[in-house]
Structures are given as C-alpha cells and as structure tokens.
Amino acid sequence: MVETKNTSPPSVPPAEVDEVELYHAKSFWTKYVFSQDAKVIAIQYSGVAIAIGLVALVLSSLIRLQLGFPEMFDFITPETYYQFVTMHGMIMVVYLLTALFLGGFGNYLIPLMIGARDMSFPYVNMLSFWIYFLAVLVLVGSFFVPGGPTGAGWTLYPPQAILSGTPGGKGLGIILMLVSLALFIVGFTMGGLNYVVTVLQGRTRGMTMMRLPLTVWGIFTATVLALLAFPALLVATVMMLFDRLLETSFFMPSLVEFGDQLSYGGGSPILFQHLFWFFGHPEVYIVALPAFGIVSDLISTHARKNIFGYRMMVWAIVGIGALSFIVWAHHMYVSGMHPYFGFFFATTTLIIAVPTALKVYNWILTLWNGNIHLNTPMLFSLGFIVTFLNGGLTGLFLGNVIVDIPLSDTMFVVAHFHMVMGVAPILVVFGAIYHWYPKISGRMLDERLGKIHFWVTFVGSYLIFFPMHYIGLVGVPRRYPELGDAAFIPDSVATLNSFISLAAFIVGIAQILFLYNLFWSLRKGRPSGPNPWRATTLEWQTPHTPPAHGNFGPELPLVYRWPYDYSVPGASEDFLAQNDPGPLDSESST
Amino acid sequence: MTVVLIFLAVVLSTSIWWLSHQRLGAKPWLENGLDSLDHGSHRVSLPKAKVGLLVILAVVGMLFTLLFSSHFMRQEIEDWRSIPLPNMIWVNGILLLAASFYLQFALVAARREALQVKMLEIGAPKPVNIRHNEKNNNSVRYLLTNACVLTVAFLIGQLITWLELAGKGFFLSGNPSSSFFYVLTGLHGLHIIGGLAVLFHTTALSRSNIQLHKIVNKIDLCALYWHFLFFIWCAMIFVMLGWTYDPFIELCKRVIS
Amino acid sequence: MGVALAIVIIVIGSVVFHLLSPWWWTPIATNWGFMDDMISFTFWITGIVYVVILLFVAYCVYKFQYREGRVAAYEPENTKLEIWLTILTSLGVVALLAPGLFVWFQFVNVPEEATEVEVVGQQWSWSFRLPGADGKLGTADNRLISEDNILGINPKDPYGQDDIIIDGYDLHLAVGRPVKMLLRSVDVLHNFYVPEFRAKMDMVPGMITYFWMEPTRIGTYDVLCAELCGVGHGYMGGTVLIDTDDDYDLWISEQTTFAEMTTNTGIEFTKLVEDP
Which of A163, A291, A470, B90 would you label with C43, given CA atoms 20 to 30 Å apart? Predict the structure, then answer.
C-alpha cells in the first residue's frame, strides 16, 4: 500500500481524518431507528441495557423476598428461585454491564473524546446494536417458553445445565439462553471491532495515545479483552448446544440420571469450566476497566485537579488487561482441576492486586490538594472508591487459594463479587450518567434528587453486601433458596437475611427516583450549556450540545495537550481544554 | 489451554509492541502543542478496513485455538479414539491453497494496475515493458473468478468428506473425535462462506466497469483472509491427525502440569 | 463535612460490626485450623488497609472541599511515592500469599497413613464407601451403575468385594485418623461440604477428586452440597459423625460389604474374579 505522506503546509495542518464516509440519514427510520450515528446507537444500547437491567433488578428483589422471608411466598419455588438467580446474574453481567459500558458509553464517548466524526464502520455498528437487541429479545423470550428460563446458575455448568434436574434443562430455556449468548457475542464482536479500529485509526490530529482520556483507555482495553475473551464463551456455547441438541459429548461424561444410563460418555465438565472462566475472568475486567477509566475522569474533573500519575494509570490498565488472561482458574480452586494449578493461579491473582491497588492510590492522591466539588458525579465516584476497595480487599481472601477453600461457594463469594463488580461499577454508571447527561440532552439532571438517589443507593448497597460477608463466614452456601436446619447456622442469620432484604427493597425502590429524574430533566432540567463542568476533554468542546451529526463543526478539533490540564499554574481559567492552544503554546517545543 | 495461551501471547505481544511505539513513557503534561510530537505517525499506517480485518483475524484465531485446546484436552481422556481422516481432505487442501495463490496473483496484478494509474496521474513516463492495461484487467478478473471457483470446489470437497465419514458410520455424536471433526470443519466452512460473500462481490465489481485500482484494497483483504483461513485449515488438520503425541507436545504438557 | 463524616461512620461502623458480629465460623473439627488463622490474618491486613485508606479519603474530602478561591495543586505525578506504594503493596501481597502456598502444598499432598473414604454424590443424596479388610477401594465406573450396583463398583475387581457401602445412612469417621476423601459423582457436579471440616472439593462425574484431613473433634456434623446441582441443591443434606476409636470400630463392624449386598453372590462372582 502506498500511503500518501502528509504534505501539510507549515502552518496549521488539516485535522480531518481521511477515509471518513459519514452516512447522512434521510428519513426518520434511518435517523432514529436504523441509525448509523454512534450517538444514537449509544442511546439505543443504553436504553435496552437499562430496560433489561430493570428486569434483573426486579428478579433480585424476588430473590431477596425468598431469602429474607422464606416460605412466605408460594410462587417462589426452588425452580423459580434458581431461574431468578440465573437470569439475574446473566443479565447483570452480560446484557447490562457489558452492553452499557461498551455499547453505551463506548459508542457515545469514543468518537467524541478522540475527535472523530463517527465510528470507523458505522453500518457494522448499527448491525451490532440490532443483533444485541435480538439477543435480548431471545433472552426475554425464554421467560415465556414452557418450562421457563434456565436455572443452571449464570455459570451454566454442565452436566446439570442440560439435564432434567435443572429448570429449563430439558426444555427450551437453556437452548434460548445459549442462542442468545451466541447472538450477543456476534453482535458484540461487530461493535468491538469498531471501538478498537476507531481508537487506532480515528484519532484527530494531535491526539496521541498518551493524550487519550483514561475513559477511552479503559473502554479500549476492555474491548480488546472482550474481543479475545468472548470467543471462549462462544466455543463453550456452541459445544454445549451440540451436547444438548445432537447428543455429542464435549462436556458430558458417562452418567446416570435418576437411575437411567444416558448415552453421553467421555466428555469433560472441567473443560467447560476452563472455557467459561477463560471468558469469565476477563469479563470481570471488561466491566471494571471502563469503570476505572470513567471514574478517573470524574474524579479529576470534579476535584479540579489532574489525575495523579497518568502514566501509571495507563500502564496499570494495560497491565491488568494482559494479566487478566492468566488468572481465570482462581474461580476453579475447588473444581477438581489439577491441584498444582493452584500455586500458579493464586500467585498471578495476587500479582494483579498490585496494579489495581495503585489505581486506588492514584484516585485518592488526586483528591489530595484538590478543590473537591461534592456534586453527584463526585459522590458516586467516592462511593465507588469505598465499595471497590471493600470488594478488592475481599478479593485478596478469595484469590489466595488456601483461604478460598473454606470460603468458596459460600455467601462470602456472593457478597464479594456484588461489591466489586456489581455495586462498584453501577455506582460509576450512575456517576457517569449524571456527568454526561448534560452533553447528551443539553440539560442538567436535578442535583437534589441525584444526591438523595446517591445516599440511598450507596448506603443501602453497603448495608446489603457488607453483612452478607459474615453470613458466608458462618458457612452458609450460596444458591440456597432457604437456610435449612443445619446446626451450624444460628437463627440470627435469618434475622440478618430479613434485614438485608429490607435494605435491598429500599435500594430497588430508590431507582425510581433516578428514572424519574432522567425523564423529568429531559424537559424541565436546567439548561446546561456546552460545558457545565468546565471539563477539558473534547466532547465538551463541541459547537452543538447535544453534538450534531458528525460531532464537530466543519473542522475537527486539533489537540494541543493532555486531557488533565486543570488548575494549571499561570493559566487564566482553572482548566485548559485539549483543543486550546493555550498560553503555554509558545514554549512548547520539546 | 497451552495453544490458546501461545496464540494469546502472540496477539498481546503484537499489541504491546505497537503500544511501546506510542511513547508510553512520555510525560504528556510536559508536551503541549501540536507539531512537537505528532507527525501523523501515531495511527497505524494501514487502511482502516485492513486494521479491522486484522482485528477480526485475531478473534477468529482465538476461536479456533480455543477449539484446538479443547481438542487436546479431550484427547487426553482415555476413551479417545481418533477417526481416520478421509483422503479427500488433501485434495481440499490443495484447492484452498490454489485459491489462496490465485488471490495473491490477483492482488499483485491489481497493485500493478494501481501503480500504473498513479504514475499516469503524476505524469511519470510510461515504462516500456509494462503490460497492457486491458490485458492486466482481464487477468485480474480471470484470477479472481478462478479463486471463487476453487473455493466453491473446496466447500463441495468438504461436504464430500462429511458424506464419506458419515458413510463410514462416523456421525456428529458418538465418537468425540468425529464430533470435533464436524464442528471444526463446519466452523471453518462458515468462515469461508462469509469470506466468499465478499469475494463474490469483489469479483462482480472487477467484472463491471469499475476501475481496478479502486478495488485493490478489497482484493487485498480477500487475499489476507484466504491465506489466514488456509493457515487455520492446516493447523486444524495437524491437530486432528492426532500427531499430538510427539515429543514437543509431550514436553509442553509436562511444562504446564 | 457531611460526606467526610459519612465515610468515617462507614469505617467505624464496619469495624464495630466486625468486632461485635455474632456471625462467625463454626468451631473447626479437623486439622485445617491454619485456614482459620489465614482468614483472621487476612482480615487484619486488609482491615488495616481499608481503615487507613478510607480515613485518608475522608480527610481529603474534609480538607480539600471546594471553597471559593481555592486553587488545586498541579501535581502530575510523584515517582518516588508511587515506587514506595508499589513496594509496600507488593510486600503486603507476598505476606498474604506465601504462607498460604505452603499450606496449599500440605493440602494437596496426602500423607501416607491416610485411609481412603469414598463419597458419591447424586441428585440429591450422598452415599459412602469404605475400604474393607484389604484397605483398598475397588475401581468403579458410572457405566456399571444398576439397581443392584448403585455405586457402579467393578464386580471384576477383587479389591471391591469387601468394600463397605453406606447408602442412606450416616458416615462415621474416627477421630485422629487422617482420611483421604475420594469424591465421585454419579450425575452432575456436587461439592461435599461440611463447614466444620473447612476443606471442600467439587465432585465431577467421570473424575475422582480428593481432599484430605484429620478429624480432631468428636461430634455430629451436617453435610451440605456446595455446587449447584439442580433444584434439589439446597436440600441435599447428610450427616457425618466423628467417633472415638472404639465407637468407630463398633460401627464399622456392623456394616455390609458390596459382596453381601449384591443379590447374586457366590458362584457367579468367583467366576468373574477369575478371568480378569
């Protein structure tokens, strides 16, 4: 390929990225429904993800109803309980968090933050959303088939996932689940391709990798992880579908089900677990890394101070991403795999704690000597630090193989992963919505409602999941619809469970405030202007708010500086936008 | 999972190698301004479609290496019995290799054409021994069409192997080795079919009035994709031949356990 | 002020909850007390880190809250500080990991004198098998399972004939005698979980997994399943008793062997045993 060398005049070179083929929508359908504009796709993704997330929220309330007040509700049988648990987990991890962070925030923020007019392949991007939507429909459809959705747990471990002892195992439930996952993966790969190529090729002039906001770094790295990790789930899904439908024996050993010899033979359930967690562990970071990135930007902007240790933050994101591929088997310490793997995976797991800890230190050191505006996005960021720190530290229990043995498969694990990849990323999602809503809608969300929403959600979630660790410490196993009469469980655990359930209902109901705020502010919110937070990154510098088709005006912005020039000594404002040549421009020759 | 980890190491080290050229050690807060560090070189110097394809290839590669890994892990269980691979696969391999070659030749011819157009544009004197334009166009069409035909032949050949195996009584279920055979070749076939859609489109374009240099990029993508799928096919056959008991694999196994 | 105070309250509340919590592990009944020690030790280390970091956050929020006219410092990085933090964190991580790995080595290496006890899980009950007089368990396979042979013991294996089968009754173990628990599943994944033992492991159909332990406390303990195994998962109970040596010997003398259980004992078996 002959690449035309840029023969720009010595003055200001053109910023336009070549090969931009903006699709101009002509009708309502192509503008709002089958839109190829990343911003519209982002909103579609977020809308569907939040809608299905609300289903998962309702499911979690049903779970808590059963755990808090067992035997009070006849419609919750062990079957339905497992179905609720499974669908709650699967929706939250895959269909809500992955889709929202990458499909939602990724689509909206990547082109705007790097100074591109749109994604690199807008048509593929549109397809990505519609396939995702189809996946969600198939998933929802599984609630309405005979036998109901699968109740195999979100890990879908064979053999039980496709046997009759599990709800949906012999019905359509598990099939629809697997089909929906396969669709999701195909759709995601299309989107992910866009995010990666856009970050690589779509950056405007001056936007070097080391000038990317950490949000983009987080989403970019998470996308790379997802592209490489999701194939493992796809392989597992396809092989399990074959096992279920065509009686192959990829994961099915010879077994006797309720006295009947089945025709399976020789397959390995552990193989599925390896494949699943080869996807599943990076998945944790697929959710966490965008949250890390976003929270860095929120803290920096609202503390009016540059992010502390930007380079370290970038290295940590990349390092965590790379390491996340060699820790998967820490989910399998008690799976019966070769016990010597325990040494390796415990070591890699605890190594990954170091860059993660450094990120926490750097967020906090960013607060030090800052000028902290305690508005809603900042509050959610602080909430994230508390819950993430909590969940990260309990991760040190579970990553350490010998400590994991007594704690694995107890409620301690449930409390841990809800704290670290449930509550913490969702607090970031809320913070991010409060932060970017003005750009998306042109209006501010109501601060007062936002603060109430924050306090109820944050304190409530803490009250749910902090005591839950101790239920696990007692030894109560997870995935039990009721405590049973085992002697080691004191009666007070039931009381604690009721308390946790009450807290969960309050948190659940508080989300109505958020939804109300979201819709109310769309019409009645205070107009925000283009840059209400006085932030430096490019999305706040667009000529239109909300940004018009093509994001920027006739010319793309030129980037002169890194994204964290807050409170620069000597500057007239307390922030210098990335496209601001600034007073320091004259002395910038390096 | 060794195969996967090796593949992953290759992909990740390529990414990290690229990142290491992005001045990751720079202190961006000290480097204000535009021209001091940006010479247009911060992007990957490839067309975005090709970068996109490379990303896809990484994902596809991951998919297949995961299956290879599963194959190896399954193989270690004692009831494993390898199925005899039909001889037809060798014919198929040659067909796919030939298609891959034809695409490469088409790419070379189309590039020559593109270069010629470019030279005309900038007014360079026409080299004496360059082939006639029309003839060149024809050869690209011919080569692309051949690639299409050969690939279709490959797919038919794969179908024949399936029938042959089924005729011998090896179905999808029953013997895990044959399950893997069908799943691997089936998945590979699906990828070929996906690629064929693009190749058909490109061939049709080359047969219309479009100027050849405008589809060079498309031919380039097809060629790369075909080479990659041929490579995957070879790896697949290697895995399924059951040559996994050789000392190298044994050594690897010992290293991981 | 309010936010800083809230963080301080969360920190104090968490510590107080931890110290006063009546919800704590059940007294241990095996030699794996080290696991409890490691949990306590990890609680100490992580607890201190948690308290220090959050109090520091609270201080920052209190001290550097927005005030008209305050200008934030411009401080892109501080390499020295970051290196120190990395070293400290690494040291903490090593302190947590290293002792654990030594114990893990003990955990996976079964002592010679441990006797084998087989636990078989199926939807949704437990069965047990003890080696008979020969001290060895016979081989078994799921494909051999039938109504007469509920555990799929290989009838051709002479070691299997005197194996003691306990189906529908409680398992007894002798205090002070280390046992290697061999875990096997008939259908799906299970996990033999007795909270007092601390050790646990999945049971995987087609595989034999294991853990070992030395019972140290006489008593009766509940068995639960700790790996989701279908709708009956929460109700898959059982009981293990740890007996004194005498009680144990008395109990074991009353059990039936595989050969006794099988309906067609005698001629047919001897025939089977003869041709291998």
Answer: A291
